[in-house]
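Comment thread on ticket #2218

A.B. wrote:
> Attaching the input chain for the structure job we discussed in standup.
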Amino acid sequence: MRVPFRPLARVAVPAALLGLAFPSAFCTSSCAPLVPTAISLLLLRSGTVPRAPRARVVGRYLLTISSAYAFALVWLPRSLEGRFSVLRAAAVWVALSVYSALYPTVAIAISLVLLRHRVALSASLPALWAVAEAARAAAFGGFDWLSLGYTAVEYRIFQHLFHPIGTFGVSALLVCIATAPIDLCRLVRLRPRRHLAAVGAAGIVAICAKQLPCSHEEAMVGTQSDMGLVGVLQASGEDDWASELTSVALSGVRVVVTPEELLSFQVPPLEPGVHMLLGATVDCGWRGGRKCIQNVIRHIGPEGRENTPYAKRVLVPMYERDFFVAAHDRIIMLPGSKAVVFDVDGVRMGPIICYEIADRHLVQQLKSLDVDLIVHPTSDTWQVDRSAAVQHLNIARARAAEFRIPILRVSNRWLTRMIDDHGRIVDGLEDGVSPLGGTINIGVTRH
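C.D. wrote:
> Ran it. Output below, let me know if you need it in another format.
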């Protein structure tokens, strides 16, 4: 006797695959080929041609995609537990997952309405999905976060597509790959269950394809350049980093870069003899009875003179914008107002701090200023595991490939890496050891 599919199975199967697919942007074992399979199963299990996107069907999409985002952001509540209560951290996690899923859910609902008017899914959904991601990024204040395109950054075949079509274009391409088989099967009138079996077989092939050596942990081989080696310090403010900083400065490099917010409020006297780009927190006085601070990168030249610093311009929503006031009560973080370019022995370095790398407009602005390299200090001591750092790294890789500009990511815990202008990792330091000083070949020439 045939057992009918239960309603729960309509959500469980695509949710499991989407849960594997979306975090592929955030973990070392990427499953990017699973994305098309997962979206195909999602649409099939809910019915390819419903009479209308009824509330039950749309709710199923929302539940499935929300579960995928929740699985991708599973590190978030654990990372916030030290700052928020357990219940509040869990509420932030669930709310962010559901809110992020609203945009692609609306895209799917509209595409199913258009399908009734004979507009193919592979024509409508890719464009609507890209528009939904762009709208979500705008709503987040410019943060292009959780885009489907990030899942493809580890694959060479997609790395060359980020520059001509952008991250949103790669997202649209992945959705097009997912929906084209559905349109084809409708055209030849295959039975849905046979189509389901075919998509499942494609998923197995995709998993096998993942075994090909194309992840971000591939061999890191630096290239020689006029700039030579850059000294980096992988440390946090709690470490005894001062002696390590001196050691790195004396290792024959021309510039030393530290992570975000390494120095708190006061910079000790330095006579470096090299350029130093130091992540710091600076005091900006008082406003309305509250202390004001800024997150900056300070540029100290070889002679010890400080040049114009760069202050972080885009603050993280629901964290730096609101958290400092809520948690510290009398502290406000102020945003910077302009881009700054550091001239380091003829190499133009454009600074971007931490999650500012998710704002494509800032990277585009630095590209228009004709910088040779983006310096990207970040702090990940608040993250409880490596998966969040990998997500952050893949955003930086997508930006490098999209704008054809190399990026030096300097962290205080995980994934200090040099990314070339195709999004490939070419050099880096050992992870998880602090304090750790070392050198990285940045692979760029003088401007």
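A.B. wrote:
> Thanks. Noting for the ticket: The chain has 13 helices and 14 strands.
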